[in-house]
Design goal:
5-stranded mixed beta sheet
Length: 321
């Protein structure tokens, strides 16, 4: 049986979409994919339906590199309400309990408490998260009224700033590692106060290394006249890979690389930061991941650089249409 032809254009690049409130990340992805008439698309990390903000959407060959963005630091702004807990830890959930907020709680005291949550810590994911336990998504179990034990996960809160505080609500700015759940952070803050809390608004302000790049709203995309104009918004497929070293290979080396062989290479730059997944941080004496370019400056794929620095083995080979 012949393979069904995939619809759409061969579009390659990264779109920094400003996800609207309501609807899943996948719904936003599919809308963007239709607007670009793209054959292939994926996103790097989900946002809750309640949440808005940066959702990097990868088109075409950029989807092969998305795993190298998933472990990047992220920034959020969140508004929380004290005194009320919900089953989802956000405003979309059913109220579980209402407790009085300490009447003498001041901005200074609240700020001091929040500072205790900075640094490395173990965090229990909320029941409505998308992670799997015994092969089942937690949010699906939550919809069935079930609750299961969730093993804690190691996360890091790099920065936590109190932007405003009214006595019963507050707004926070957070910079954190991958895997951090802001709902769990807010829940923990509420329990530390003894009154509980839940998220009423959540916005992802950035995904590293795109802090300085503007986002585009779905409405703005829809108002653009054609796909050519939209294509100008796309970042190059390697825009988020500056933390990886770069190597160059010859024309013959490119042919060998695309056949799965390890050609000779020349290191052209070293990575500026280490934001890639932990499995790309090998111990001394092992190989490291790197960007692989041909002599014309075209990205050929990702590879593992041998300890000698003279050869590169293919790990992701790109196929440009």
């Amino acid at each position: 049986m012949s393979r069904r032809r995939q619809r759409g254009r061969a579009v390659h690049g990264i779109l920094l979409l400003d996800k609207p409130c309501g609807g899943s990340s996948n719904h936003a992805l599919q809308r963007a994919k239709r607007l670009f008439d793209a054959k292939k698309a994926g996103h790097t990390g989900s946002l809750d339906p309640l949440a808005t903000g940066m959702l990097p959407v990868c088109f075409g060959e950029a989807t092969k590199l998305s795993a190298y963005l998933l472990d990047a630091d992220k920034g959020y702004e969140t508004t929380l309400q004290l005194g009320v807990t919900t089953h989802s830890a956000d405003a979309d959930g059913d109220v579980l309990q209402t407790r009085p907020v300490p009447q003498d709680l001041t901005l200074a005291e609240f700020t001091r408490l929040c500072q205790k949550f900075k640094g490395a810590q173990q965090q229990i994911p909320p029941m409505v998260s998308a992670i799997k336990i015994d092969g089942q998504r937690l949010y699906k179990l939550a919809r069935q009224g079930k609750e299961v034990d969730r093993p804690p996960r190691a996360v890091v809160i790099h920065e936590l700033e109190v932007l405003s505080f009214s006595g019963v609500s507050a707004r926070l700015a957070v910079r954190c590692s991958k895997g951090t759940y802001i709902r769990s952070l807010v829940t923990d803050i509420g329990e530390a106060l003894g009154c509980g809390a839940h998220v009423t608004a959540l916005r992802r302000t950035f995904v590293s290394p795109f802090e300085q790049h503007p986002m585009i709203t779905m409405e703005a995309l829809e108002q653009m006249g054609n796909t050519a104009v939209r294509d100008e918004l796309l970042l190059p497929v390697d825009a988020g890979l500056g933390h990886l070293s770069a190597v160059s290979i010859s024309a013959q080396g490119r042919a060998a690389f695309e056949r799965g062989q390890a050609p000779a290479c020349v290191i052209t730059s070293t990575g500026i930061d280490r934001l890639a997944p932990t499995d790309t941080h090998p111990a001394d004496g092992e190989s490291v991941h790197c960007r692989v370019y041909d002599q014309a400056g075209c990205l050929v794929g990702l590879g593992e650089l041998a300890e000698s620095g003279e050869q590169v083995a293919p790990r992701r080979v790109l196929q440009w249409d």
